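In response to the reviewer comment on reproducibility (Comment 2.3), we provide here a single inverse folding case reported in full, input and output, so that an independent group could reproduce the run without further information from us. The structure tokens appear first.
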């Protein structure tokens, strides 16, 4: 039963109850079963089994094969669950984009308002592509545990050219480095090379650059223009040490990371 339980949290994200998730995982892994066999395998009491099976039938995930004895089978995950997974990925990406924009607006508002003395240590603005890159490299060099990066398609190329050595040194120290970016026909070759350096996930659409260093700093920046030039650019960045902002983005990053395809799937 332990192998069945491993699937339950993921299936519950699709709207299944715990009992429904147990039943579907059992049928999908072991094939058609009678009610008695299914109750034993899934750990769902017989008194709760039929109600859960009917719920799965309404969702299109289970079908009745025989009446006597009643025998149930799972439908293919490709028919129902994959479309739901794709919807979750899209919603997570849209949420990440909106929260990024809100966070940037929020931090800008606080900086402009200037009402809290603590802001001097929590926030700073950096202008110019080279200055931003230098700041990121220094932060990578100081990182002790993790560096989580989101970059646009062109931003990934700039990152590879300007920050790969700093990232390699950080990973040699045991720092976990992850990157979410958009892979296109123009940067596909660089994407394949960068997978040898760090952990990588591909996202269909990225508009804003973001990097979280350990749990101490986060930087948001917009590339103006968003091209592949390393030094010239009127980029602007906001660096924050606000622990609530950093923790929120780390959690959201982890959520999105788990929904995106790996490098081997490119």
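Designed residues, in position order:
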């Amino acid at each position: 039963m332990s192998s069945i339980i491993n699937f339950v949290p993921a299936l519950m994200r699709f709207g299944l109850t715990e009992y429904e998730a147990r039943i579907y995982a059992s049928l999908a892994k072991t094939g058609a079963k009678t009610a008695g066999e299914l109750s034993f395998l899934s750990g769902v009491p017989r008194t709760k089994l039929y109600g859960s099976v009917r719920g799965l039938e309404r969702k299109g995930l289970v079908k009745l094969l025989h009446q006597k004895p009643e025998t149930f089978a799972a439908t293919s995950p490709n028919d129902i669950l994959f479309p739901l997974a794709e919807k979750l990925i899209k919603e997570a990406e849209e949420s990440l984009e909106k929260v990024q924009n809100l966070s940037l607006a929020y931090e800008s508002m606080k900086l402009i308002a200037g009402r809290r003395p603590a802001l001097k240590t929590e926030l700073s603005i950096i202008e110019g592509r080279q200055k931003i890159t230098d700041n990121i490299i220094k932060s990578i060099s100081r990182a002790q545990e993790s560096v989580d990066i989101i970059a646009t398609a062109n931003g990934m190329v700039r990152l590879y050219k300007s920050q790969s050595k700093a990232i390699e040194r950080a990973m040699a120290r045991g720092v976990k480095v992850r990157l979410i970016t958009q892979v296109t026909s123009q940067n596909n070759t660089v994407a394949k090379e960068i997978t040898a350096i760090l952990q990588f996930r591909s996202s269909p659409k990225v508009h804003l650059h973001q990097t979280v260093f350990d749990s101490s700093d986060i930087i948001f920046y917009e590339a103006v223009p968003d091209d592949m030039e390393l030094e010239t650019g009127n980029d602007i960045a906001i660096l924050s040490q606000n622990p609530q902002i950093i923790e929120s983005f780390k959690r959201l990053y982890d959520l999105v990371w788990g929904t995106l395809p790996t490098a081997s799937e490119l």
